[in-house]
From TrEMBL:
Top-level taxon of origin: Bacteria
Organism ancestry: Bacteria, Bacillati, Actinomycetota, Actinomycetes, Kitasatosporales
Ranges of residues in domain HTH cro/C1-type: 1-35
Organism: Streptomyces davaonensis (strain DSM 101723 / JCM 4913 / KCC S-0913 / 768)
InterPro entries with a match to the protein in the record: Cro/C1-type_HTH, Lambda_DNA-bd_dom_sf
GO molecular function terms noted in the UniProt entry: DNA binding
Protein's name in the database: HTH cro/C1-type domain-containing protein
Length: 59
């Protein structure tokens, strides 16, 4: 995933397809389901996951 694609996904200007979700999860070393919301509210782990996501993809 390029920096541009990542940025557009983060800003909701690009869809996050299943292929992207699987690639992001693999980069983080977690199951793809861990990136999906559990219900109406977002878990408190989301900021940590986003930080790990950016670090894994951007170095």
């Amino acid at each position: 995933m390029t920096n541009t694609a990542l940025s557009r996904t983060e800003r909701a200007r690009r869809r996050c397809d299943i292929d992207d979700l699987v690639a992001i999860a693999a980069a983080l070393g977690i199951a793809p389901a861990a990136l999906l919301p559990l219900g109406p509210s977002v878990s408190h782990a989301a900021p940590k996951t986003l930080d790990r996501f950016q670090e894994a993809l951007l170095g």
